[in-house]
From TrEMBL:
It comes from the Bacteria. The modification Phosphohistidine is found at H72. PANTHER family: PTS SYSTEM N,N'-DIACETYLCHITOBIOSE-SPECIFIC EIIA COMPONENT (PTHR34382:SF7). Its cofactor is Mg(2+). Signal peptide: none annotated. This is PTS system cellobiose-specific IIA component. The active site is at H72. It holds the Pfam family PTS_IIA. Binds 1 Mg(2+) ion per trimer. It comes from Planifilum fimeticola. GO terms for biological process: phosphoenolpyruvate-dependent sugar phosphotransferase system. One of its GO terms (molecular function) is metal ion binding. Mg(2+) binds at D75. Keywords: Magnesium, Metal-binding, Phosphotransferase system, Sugar transport, Transferase, Transport.
């Protein structure tokens, strides 16, 4: 496996996942939950692609210590995963806010 290519793909897919996650958060802030769910799914797919490259990279290094760049690229991917998990929680919080907002509006219109 070409080390530089693997590093590139880890950063690429991690960045794509983070971008999709934040787009999902933007959609949730506007109470567009279908869009948010679609974007979260796309973020998951990007992470899975990155994870495949990460697995291949780890398996290809054998007993050789990984390079600093490989470790950094893996950290980039794992940070994207952590941010995606947080964004999912925010999206759920926006669902609760939307529900409460609708309930209050209903009470006010009585």
């Amino acid at each position: 496996m070409d080390l530089e290519q693997a590093i590139f793909h880890l950063v690429l897919y991690g960045g794509n996942a983070r971008g999709k996650a934040y787009e999902a958060l933007d959609a949730a802030e506007e109470f567009r939950f279908e869009d948010a769910e679609k974007l979260l799914q796309e973020a998951e797919e990007e992470l899975m692609k990155g994870h495949k490259w990460q697995t291949d990279l780890v398996q290809s290094t054998g007993d050789n210590p990984p390079s600093f760049l490989a470790i950094h690229a893996q950290d980039h991917l794992m940070t994207a995963l952590a941010e995606l998990n947080l964004v999912k929680r925010f999206v759920e919080n926006y669902r609760v806010i939307d529900d409460l907002k609708k309930r209050v509006e209903k009470l006010e219109n009585r």
